[in-house]
Structures are given as C-alpha cells and as structure tokens.
Amino acid sequence: MYLIIACPRCGNYSVVRDTAKTHQCPYCGYVMRIEEASIIARAKNGKEARELILKLKTPRELRKRP
Ligand SMILES: [Zn+2]
C-alpha cells in the first residue's frame, strides 16, 4: 500500500510506502514523520499512486497557463 501525503512545510504531494515511518520531501527537503503529514489518498501500487498525484496536480498546473 502507498500513501500520497502533503508536505507540512511546502504542501507538495509525494508518494510514500505505508510501512515508512519518515519521509523526506523531494521538493523542500523537509524530513517529516508520516503521522504529522496529511494523507491525501491511498493507492495499491506505485503506478496508481503516480496517476493519483498527476490528477491532484493537474488543476493547479492548468491555472498557471494563460
Ligand atoms: Zn516539502
């Protein structure tokens, strides 16, 4: 099982195994405990997790375009 979590410092989403205790944000480098991060979604595998992240990010990225 994979979790999609939001970084408590920068708010970006990243994927982490649900067995992990800590995770380093790839965007800002903050090392968070999984229990302090917001769990956005759960996925069965890495592929599903990446697809979920793409879906979650799409609206924000579309708004940036003119
Ligand atoms: Zn971060």
From TrEMBL:
InterPro entries: DUF1922 (IPR015166), MTH1184 (IPR036304)
TM segment ranges: none
One Pfam family linked to the record: DUF1922
DUF1922 domain boundaries: 1-56
Protein name (database record): DUF1922 domain-containing protein
